[in-house]
Every structure is written in C-alpha cells, then in structure tokens.
Design goal:
The complex is a heterodimer of chains A (about 110) and B (about 110). Chain A has no helices and eleven strands. By secondary structure, chain A is an all-beta fold. In chain B, strand 7 and strand 8 form a beta hairpin. Classes of the chains: A mainly beta (about 110), B mainly beta (about 110). Chains A and B meet through strand 5 and strand 10 of A and strand 4, strand 5 and strand 9 of B.
Chain lengths: ~110, ~110
Amino acid sequence: QQQVKQSPQSLIVQKGGISIINCAYENTAFDYFPWYQQFPGKGPALLIAIRPDVSEKKEGRFTISFNKSAKQFSLHIMDSQPGDSATYFCAASMETSGSRLTFGEGTQLTVNP
Amino acid sequence: NAGVTQTPKFRVLKTGQSMTLLCAQDMNHEYMYWYRQDPGMGLRLIHYSVGEGTTAKGEVPDGYNVSRLKKQNFLLGLESAAPSQTSVYFCASSYRTLSNYGYTFGSGTRLTVV
C-alpha cells in the first residue's frame, strides 16, 4: 500500500525552466512533508519541508505548495539548472509514529543545458 | 563530524549466506532507521529504533533483524540472504522532532545476492 504517490516518474526540462513534481497522500494524520534530493551514489538529503498549517514555503529557487483539502503537495524548482539534475523524493511523516518517513516513488529530473 | 557512516559500501552474497550491515552516527540522534531503495519504489522502511535498546518493524521487515545496543549504532542483519534482498540499503538518523533538520542519511550499501 503506497500511502504517498509521486508523479511524474521522470521529468526533462530546459535550463531556466520550471520543474514541477507532485505528490498525493492518503493519511490525514501526516503532519510533516519533506522533499529530499538524491544524487547518484549518495544518500538522500533534505531539501525543504513544510507542515500542514501553511500553504506555501519558499527557500531560494525551491518552493513547496501544500493543499490540505486535496491532500496534495508539490515541489517547484524555479530557474532550473543542470546541477539540479537528481532524483527527488517527497515524503510524509507523523511525529507520533517515531517520525517514520513514508516516501513517494521518486522523480528523476534531468535539466538540459 | 562524519554524520552517518555505513559499512560496507558494497557486498556480494550468495543465496543463504548471512551478513550484518553497520550504521554509526555521531550526532547524538535518538532515532535511527534502515531503508531499502529499489527502482520505482522509493525508499521503504525495514526497521527503526526510537532509542537505545528498542527496535520496531517497519513496512518490509521480513528476512531482516536489527539491534541497537548503543545509541550511536544500528545494525541490520540478514540471516539467510535471498535474491529479493538485492537492493541499496540506507541508514538514517534523526532527532525526536524532525522540524527543520529531517533525516541524515548515510551513503548507502549496495548489496547483490546471487
């Protein structure tokens, strides 16, 4: 049972474009929604995270949009750069459950120069 | 400050062999986790620990055992390896409250079972 569904599986954008990755979750008890970035041969690294009491969080070129009623959240990468080429994972967690993260399937982003 | 260190980085096992993956963290994190990563499936939780001496099952615990005898170490054991356990294994650690810090992941162990 996949509680967090992520799309698309792969994404190709041109340098300077906007990359958008979407996630949908089922469990309304989730209270923490992070995005992780993973480069080949490395472990995932926290990129940005949001809690359900806000609808948007921005850090530099990265923005999370959160729609609590639709149980969806998305990652927007503005002015995408070749160095952003990586695999991105959304995730969700409940602090009452030992902070276990449930991950989406992942999106492989390629930014062409 | 090494963060989360996993050993070994690569391993090839024959079906039926056993092995232990070691995870060590130096950040005094309370919580530790073992995930496996398979193509198209994201990361799936195998086992986790919320403190020294405690462990709990995650989403895909069958065929694995864990121990956390010291706060800084979390061991993952495969008693009788199967080809279905071919995967990349990641250890992670975190504070009790994820807040702005989230997980710190190790660099992974690539395991092949033949």
